[in-house]
Design a protein that fits this description.
Blueprint lengths: L6 H24 L2 H16 L9 H12 L8 H13 L3 H22 L6 H16 L3 H18 L3 H14 L9 H5 L9 H16 L1 H15 L12 H18 L15 H21 L17 H10 L5 H25 L17
Helix pairs in contact: 1-2, 1-6, 2-5, 5-7, 6-14, 6-15, 7-8, 12-13, 12-15, 13-14
């Protein structure tokens, strides 16, 4: 066992995991938003009041905040520098900054999943997100702020309101992480749902596509700087393929097989009372799921590059929430077994084995004052 993984830290995370699962289950069963808010508060509290040694990059952010206080320059996104200045001018307290960023991350993610509660298993989606990425989010905080914004913005994609979606993606890019530009891939994937779009929506997508071609020189020039910024991630290639990607693809293939048994025209019969817009979302969720698997798997060959798939990872958990609601009892239990096995496998690793995100040992910020 990693010497930094203490028994006290393990017990803390076990209790936290049980609390998350319990609150999420109660929220799903009662359909009361107050429990979803309580769930978000729990995650915000643990992340926002974490000690400065919890999370690999947490200490780096402390240094950044200190430099900003001294009038220093932050070499990353200028928008993030501006946000930090505003926050620290309100209250010059680093924990206050971590708390606000935690509210943004978990507030938007839980809120968006709650919006989908009639289409997914809220408890399954939230608990699987917690198991897969809560610990990592305390490390890659800035990017997860962008991820949360993009995931929340997909509510506009579902309504086929592309301009508001683009505005939010640009905000995520400017204020948090330039890699959020990859989220424009969502618009490209809308062409797979061409038959579901009306004339106005098709015209807008076509205009965006043509505009992209006309301004391709500017885009390529910008992407040149973008790729130069991250090219050092590609300098060392090492194949280190893990079990997770195969498990995710296995779940996807089994779900397709089970649904195909109903016949092509009845694939979505298990989702009762769904309208056309909901079926559009279900079909697109499959595409997002596969894209997230493909992009995050790059990390098995180039360390850290798997993070470019983070803007699509939330749909892994949305899809989990969909397939465990299968109407057929046997199929539903097969899906639940597979989803919860991989979820518990990942959670077990974070609690008992791995500490790559430096989430062990866990301390609250006030523990340092003792």
């Amino acid at each position: 066992m990693n010497p930094q993984i203490t028994v006290g830290s393990q017990v803390f995370y076990i209790i936290l995991s049980l609390i998350v699962l319990l609150i999420a289950s109660i929220a799903e069963k009662t359909k009361q938003k107050e429990f979803a808010i309580l769930l978000a508060i729990v995650l915000i509290f643990v992340s926002g009041f974490r000690g400065y040694t919890v999370g690999r990059d947490t200490r780096n952010y402390v240094v950044i905040f200190a430099n900003i206080n001294q009038g220093g320059y932050y070499a990353k996104e200028a928008g993030f520098l501006f946000l930090c200045k505003v926050i620290l001018n309100i209250w010059n307290n680093y924990t206050f900054a971590f708390l606000l960023f935690s509210i943004l991350i978990y507030g938007l993610i839980v809120f968006r999943l709650w919006e989908l509660k009639d289409k997914i298993s809220f408890s399954c989606a939230t608990f699987s997100f917690y198991s897969f990425y809560f610990f990592e989010s305390m490390n890659v905080m800035r990017q997860f702020c962008a991820v949360a914004l993009v995931f929340w913005a997909t509510r506009y994609l579902q309504k086929k309101k592309y301009i508001p979606f683009m505005v939010v993606v640009l905000c995520a890019t400017i204020f948090f992480h330039s890699s959020a530009l990859l989220s424009f891939l969502y618009l490209g994937m809308e062409f797979f749902s061409w038959k579901d779009l009306d004339r106005k929506q098709r015209r807008l997508l076509t205009t965006l596509f043509v505009g992209g071609i006309l301004f391709s020189g500017v885009i390529i020039s910008f992407l040149g700087g973008f790729t130069e910024k991250y090219q050092h991630f590609f300098r060392s290639a090492e194949a280190n393929i893990g079990f997770r990607v195969f498990a995710l693809l296995g779940i996807f293939m089994v779900s397709l097989f089970l649904y195909s048994k109903k016949g092509k025209e009845n694939v979505y019969d298990s989702y009762s009372n769904y309208g056309q817009n909901d079926l559009y979302m279900i079909r697109n969720a499959r595409i997002y799921y596969l894209v997230s698997c493909a992009l995050t798997s790059i990390g098995y060959f180039y360390e850290l590059m798997g993070r470019i798939g983070y803007y699509f990872i939330m749909y892994q958990f949305v899809y989990f929430g969909m397939i465990v609601r299968e109407k057929n009892q046997i199929a539903r239990w097969i899906m639940k077994l597979m989803v919860y096995l991989i979820t518990l496998y990942v959670l077990y690793g974070y609690i008992f084995v791995h500490n790559g995100s430096w989430h062990h040992p866990y301390y609250f910020v006030w523990d340092y004052l003792k």
